[in-house]
Amino acid sequence: MPAGYSQRGTAFTWTPDGSALLANVDVAPGDTPYFDGELSLLDPSGIAEPRLITPPLPRGPGGPYFWHSDHVAPMFRPPDGDMILTTTGGTLVTWDRDLEQRTTRFLRGLDAFEPYRLSPWALSWSPDGSMIAFVLQWGAAYQSGAVFVMGADGSDARRLDGGGTTWSPDGTKLAGERCTTHPDGRVGGVIVVADVASGSERVLEATRVATKQEGEALEPADLTDEPLCGWYAGPAGRAWDYEGWAWSPDGRSIALLERAGTRPLVVDVETGEAIELPWEADSAPSWQRVATE
């Protein structure tokens, strides 16, 4: 990390054009909430000084701008990252890359859910930049929530039955984690893949491992700075922190980590077959992209 930056709550990922690293970091005095530090662009060569891009972007209350599982910065519009996506309450705001031109985009077709708000850390462009996936919250204390997709201009918003805001490489599917509780009170989760066109969902059976069997869905809790499924202990005293998942470049598999200190899994999206990799890890896995002729 650059001098003067704290690693508290650090998450980092590539911008879509691969020219810079985006980091969610803290600088002294570190008085922002955990996982909600200053959003900065870092020069991969280490020559240029870090560029703070948080102001005038609004901070996401109780959550990061992106998760450990985001391997390309979801707020930068593909393919060249020329537009930055943020949210304020129930509106979307886009900025040019120099943060000089601001455009407010009002969502259409969501009158039935008013009053509502958008989760600022759950926004992502489709791989071609034509659509946006987001989490909408509504109802008393905003305790109801679901994944929606819409056009890049805010049009044709519609709800999906499942999934999350992590796009498959071809833009046809969305993956996400569903938190669950078990009859004995333990908390777990499964990976759900939603078809963007039809809205249908499918639970990847192979992610129901150890304490990851599906049970009753958790009631949405007040926004906190905790991981998606909360803090709790896993088997053999291993802390369960987060579950990262990453689509393979060909879109056929998802790599994930069940919990800290376990072996990563590679799950076939179509068959649900899981292969356990022969090493232990404490962070979300990602894929190396290799050019082929």
Labels describing this entry:
four-stranded antiparallel sheet, 22 strands, single chain, 293 residues, mainly beta, five-stranded antiparallel sheet
Verbal overview:
- The chain has 293 residues and is mostly beta strands.
- It is built from no helices and 22 strands.
- Strands 12, 13, 14, 15 and 16 form a five-stranded antiparallel sheet that branches. The protein has a four-stranded antiparallel sheet with strand order 1-2-3-4, with no helix packed on it.
- Strand 9 and strand 10 form a beta hairpin.
- The two termini are 36 Å apart.
- About 11% of the residues have low confidence.
Give the helices and strands, then pairings.
Blueprint lengths: L4 E10 L6 E7 L10 E5 L8 E2 L30 E6 L2 E6 L5 E5 L9 E10 L5 E8 L5 E8 L6 E2 L6 E2 L5 E9 L5 E9 L5 E3 L12 E2 L14 E2 L5 E2 L4 E3 L5 E4 L8 E4 L5 E3 L17
Antiparallel strand pairs: 1-2, 2-3, 3-4, 5-6, 6-7, 8-9, 9-10, 10-11, 12-13, 13-14, 13-16, 14-15, 17-18, 19-20, 20-21, 21-22
